[in-house]
Design goal:
alpha+beta, six-stranded mixed beta sheet, 18 strands, 34% helix, globular
Length: 268
Amino acid sequence: MIYTPEPALLGKRFVLEQSPIRVGRGADNHIVLEGDSVSRRHAYFDRKGLQWFVIDDNSTNGTYVNEEQIAVTHALTNGDRVKVGPTILKFLSGADAEAKYHEEIYRMTIVDGLTQIHNKRFLQEELERELMRARRHNRHLSALMFDIDHFKRINDQYGHLAGDHVLRELARVVQERIRRDEIFARWGGEEFALILPETPLEGAYQLGEDLRARIEAHRFVFQGEHIPVTISGGAALLGEDDSSADLIKAADAKLYEAKRSGRNRICI
């Protein structure tokens, strides 16, 4: 099972039958992946008895299993996530592997492969439901949009793997703070969105400020280097005649106001 920025490969299944199965950028690999951080021969899957292993093939940027870089060889267990450059392959085994594959296909439609939070599609669908509920019960509905300040600079200075780490870690920090009924998703790139049912504008602002402060104070460390991270955000309240798109547009406009006015702040 494969998560990848390449649409042609998204969700593709590779059956591990022969051994070894080589992965890399070169055309002679069994699984050919694109990306500047993928080596020509990056890694390979090898079977010893009934056990499958992933072995890093002396790649430049390393091979990761469940977000941890492996030294050389790592024994795989069902559900492990193997990251090669920007691509994530999920290892499925056992008698129910076929059913798990189809479950994973559905999950890929609603979950962001990198951060493991919900994606834009899921948020948009849930926002429509929350909008109808807010109208029916005459309750507040707010949105909070934020993105990482100078994210390109982080990628340029520390590398794309460090950028990926920041995205994952930021998602984890936010998830620890929000309530179960608040819908959190990666909107795209380094931008995130929160839908906040039964929350007035001041409540959305206070949450945004709390998240901003938490992220600024959090130590983002990748391969021993501390990476300073801040966010800019904007909050908006659903108006009487607003559509879901209007709400997102209003929050996004406030996000860009925050960026224009100096970053590392929340605007309403």
